[in-house]
Amino acid sequence: MSENEKMNNNSVDNDQEPQIPESKKNEYSGFLKTLSTFTGDIYSLTCPSFLLSGVSTLEYGQYWADYPELFAAISKPADEAERALAVLKWFMSTLYGSFASRKDKEKIEKKPFNPILGEQFLARWKEINGCGETVLFSEQVSHHPPISAVYLENKHAGVSANGHTGQKTHFKATSARIDVIQVGHIIVRLRDYDDKYLIMLPPLQILGLWRGAPYVELSGTSVIQSQNFNTVIEFSGKGWISGEKHTFSSVVRRNGSKDHLFTASGTWSGKSTLENHTTNEKSVFLDVGASNRASPIIEPIEKQNELESIRLWQHVAKAINEGDFSTASKLKGEIEQRQRDKVKRGEETVLQYFDWMEEDEEFLSLYDSIT
User: Fold this and answer.
1) Cα(230)–Cα(265) distance, rounded to whole angstroms?
2) Which residue intervals make up region (Disordered) (predicted)?
């Protein structure tokens, strides 16, 4: 048996083994019973502390720059079709960190903290192979409904990505899964070219709940739309009988054309293949496992302001990491109660990095072009 086969077999076995601590199984069973009878968006449902990840949802923006050199590379090609392909490659490179990296590290997917209104997460990445520095600004711009705004920029390359994300979450009892509709989008802009790229976010599912080994699977369709090119990404996952987790297939076309310029397919958490239909050549598109994700540079806690995620949640995260779940629940509740008290007093939260737009003409124009 090859090493790859051993790794794949181990991965399957780990998915099927419950990872909930023995002392917490009764509490977990109670949580599942609550889920099965809950109606509406489960965002507001209190999650047991031992299922919390110790990080804020707002920190997930850092995964946009797991490979900052791919983000900077969007502006390199002189050919617009190649730039459309570069946007696809960058977007696919963000998915492992966003949706699979925590499962690989902790064996189960855990729930992040719900950010409070005005919460911030700031980071930067040093240049890699001359790509220039990349910076990230993210801020919680709404609490009900929860919306996180994210801005990523590499000034050296002349590339920026501005977007917002939110989730509408429901439990589907018939298939024992949580369905998540990702609300929001990303727009990639280039300093030296007029093309802009609207990225619509794919739905996702949280599976493996009954086994006590929850994990995230992307499903359905995502679209990347520019003024002249359309990319459709189809996500699928492991079925009841067969199939491979985290798979995708994508096609890049010119708007209004059925001809494939590029196709890329494989696993978004591992290796994928690119086919250039103009040259009939195949090559490696991405190999997430073969390259290291870049580490963000984040200010020390003592230099962060009181609304930055790591400082805000530091004591809750510490309690979770130490297995002191009762203290974690108490401290988390105190933060959330302060937020509720602030709302009751009518105190306004002034956003530091983002402004509301009543109507985004750029988004509407690109969205209307989706075919």
Assistant:
1) 16
2) 1-23
